[in-house]
Design a protein that fits this description.
The protein is mostly helical. The chain contains 8 helices and no strands. Helix 1 packs across helix 2, helix 1 packs across helix 5 and helix 4 packs antiparallel against helix 6. About 2% of the residues have low confidence.
C-alpha cells in the first residue's frame, strides 16, 4: 500500500515540485497535473488544496519564506549572528540558489500578477526585517538603522542577482563583499543579536 503522508509533508513536496517545474519550464508550464506528476502524487490529491495555478504559485513562494525562517531560527545569537543571517540571503549552495531563482521568477511575475502581489510583499518585507535586525545586531546607531537597513537590503538583493546570473561555482567574492561591508560598520561594544523570531 502507498505510504500515507501528512498535509505538511505533501505541501512541501508540492512546493518543491512546483519549484522544479518553474525553473525548468517557466510559469506557463505550472499546472496542477504537471506538478502532481513531478511530486509523484495523483492529481486528484492536489485539486482540493491547490485548485488553481495561482494557489500553486502562492504556495511555492510562501515555501521560500518558510525555509528562510527555519534557517534563521537555527542561527545561535552571538557576534557572528548578523553575518550568518546575511549569508542565508545569498545563493551560496544549490538549495539557496533554487530558492533565489524561484524568488526572481515569481517576484517578476508579481509585477503583473495580482494574485502574487501580497505574497511578494510579504517575502520582500521578510528580507527587509532581517536586514534591520542585522543592522541593529552589529551596533548601528538608532538614527542610522533605517538607512543601513536599506543599504543591506539593496546589497544582498544585488549580490544574489549577480550570483544566479553568473551561474558560476565561485561564491567567495560575494562573501568577501558582505564581510567588507560589515567590517566598515560601527560596532557597539555591547551589541547583541536579537533572538530569532518568526518571519512575517
Amino acid at each position: 500500500m502507498p505510504r500515507v503522508i501528512d498535509t505538511d509533508e505533501r505541501n512541501r513536496r508540492v512546493a518543491e515540485a512546483a519549484w522544479r517545474v518553474l525553473v525548468r519550464e517557466g510559469i506557463p508550464a505550472l499546472s496542477v497535473r504537471k506538478v502532481a506528476a513531478e511530486a509523484g502524487l495523483p492529481p486528484s490529491s492536489l485539486r482540493y488544496t491547490f485548485p488553481t495555478q495561482a494557489s500553486l504559485r502562492i504556495t511555492a513562494y510562501d515555501m521560500v519564506v518558510e525555509r528562510l525562517a527555519e534557517r534563521v531560527a537555527s542561527i545561535a545569537p552571538g557576534a557572528d549572528w548578523a553575518r550568518a543571517v546575511l549569508l542565508e540571503l545569498l545563493p551560496l549552495d544549490e538549495a539557496r540558489r533554487l530558492e533565489m531563482e524561484i524568488t526572481v521568477v515569481l517576484g517578476t511575475a508579481a509585477m503583473v500578477d495580482e494574485d502574487l502581489r501580497a505574497t511578494h510583499r510579504k517575502a520582500h518585507q521578510a528580507v527587509r526585517d532581517l536586514c534591520e535586525r542585522a543592522a541593529r545586531a552589529v551596533g548601528v546607531e538608532p538614527e542610522d538603522v533605517q538607512v543601513e537597513t536599506e543599504r543591506l537590503h539593496a546589497m544582498v538583493d544585488g549580490l544574489a542577482l549577480h550570483m544566479i546570473r553568473q551561474q558560476g561555482e565561485d561564491t567567495d567574492w560575494a562573501v568577501r563583499v558582505v564581510d567588507t561591508h560589515l567590517a566598515g560598520l560601527k560596532r557597539a561594544p555591547s551589541a547583541q543579536a536579537p533572538p530569532p523570531s518568526a518571519l512575517g
